Amino acid sequence: MVVCFIDASLFIVETPCIGIRQRSGENLGMVFVDLHCVLSDVRQSIQSQMTGSKLSRQNYWFLKHNTWPISCKQESQLTVIDIIEDSCLIVDVQTFLTPSNSPLTPSPQPRKKIKGTRHLSFRTSKDLDRNQIADSSMTDEKQILISYVRADAAHHALILKQELSSLGFSVYLDVHEITSGVDWQDSLNDAVRNCQVFVPLVTPKYGETLWTNREIKLADVLGKYIIPVSFLSDWPPPCLAIQFSTTQYISWTTNNTDNNKDIFTWKSKDLKCVAKQIAEKVQKFMNTDTDLPSLIKRVY
Description:
13 strands; TIR domain-containing protein; about 30% helix; TIR_dom; 11 helices; alpha/beta; 2 domains; Ubiquitin-like (UB roll); Toll_tir_struct_dom_sf
């Protein structure tokens, strides 16, 4: 309940006013909703109360902690109080370009497909009953997928993608690829299944978080070419000893003798060196019929 004084008169507003702010910081408007209102109802309130605003013309999704996207299914399980920040709800607005307003860009050159990779189905019987929204909304297949722990290496993943993209590779990074209205978990599952090279940034927490543990194990099961970038002093990490026991890694720094390395600061020269090594490993198999190392059958 909010109490307001206007012209010496007392007004009691039963429903609080919540601001709606875009991820970039732009204020989009406000709605009157209860703090315990589920996000799916908030979406309806925005539609009815903010008619004519940017949100009524474009698709969007809610963000938790200004970073984590909330899927449509999750909106019925989370309330305003779960994600509110500074009296505002943060949204990520997705702009859909039409031929009349899209910028003129050159047609992308067809990418070379890495020989030796294969596409395996990892769907279970549960997937047969799902609708095809996620499949119809999937992004184009990417050559490289970067897997990382957000708390440790969010910035590292961004700058590594930029560096690899500058070398001519197409790179999947979750924060850039998952579109509004698509189930977040399904999108990551599809991304791992459809990538050609899987590059995990192995920081101290990698493999200990639920999703990085699932991603690396799924990539291993599907026989993806895995090129780990290690930010650790010891290899392999204990929680992923089976997956990485025979896997060659790339060190994140060229100065291995420094005992006081700050893994949260990635020097430009070290970044470029890592990107170059990844590019060389990928290029090595682009024009060969030899199976990738991760596709060689293991002997148990």
